[in-house]
Amino acid sequence: MKSLAHKKILGISLTSISFLLILIYTLGLFIYPDLKIFNVELSELLIKGTIYVLILVFACIIGYIGYNYLKTSPPDIEEVLREYKEYVRK
């Protein structure tokens, strides 16, 4: 089980990351949208990055669902018991 200190560090880290994202998006989309980074406007870079991450997450979810459909399911317990009884009879 995770210790209390580990949970606090994780909580502080997640909160800090969320505030940093809010700050970056506020600056990039509203305050300095025309700021150039690598000859690309910051607002355009943020929007393209967000769309990329959303599509990546969506593709991973679809892939995971497909992977779960491809996995073989365990045999029914009745089938296992029937095979066991046949094996014991021999």
Spell out the key features of this protein:
90 residues; two-stranded antiparallel ribbon; mainly alpha; single chain
Protein described:
Strands 1-2 form a two-stranded antiparallel sheet. The protein has helices at 4-31, 42-70, 77-89, and strands at residues 36-37, 40-41. It has 90 residues and is mainly alpha-helical. Helices cover 78% and strands 4% of the residues.
Query: What's the alpha carbon Rg, rounded to whole Å?
Result: 26 Å
- Spatially, the strands of the biggest sheet line up as 1-2
Main sheet record: 2 strands, antiparallel
Helix content: over 70%
Low-confidence runs of at least 5 consecutive residues: none
Précis, in short:
This protein is mainly α and 90 residues long. The chain has three helices and two strands; from the N terminus they run H-E-E-H-H. A hairpin with a 2-residue loop joins strand 1 (36-37) and strand 2.
Topology record:
Elements: H1 4-31, E1 36-37, E2 40-41, H2 42-70, H3 77-89
Helix pairs in contact: 1-2
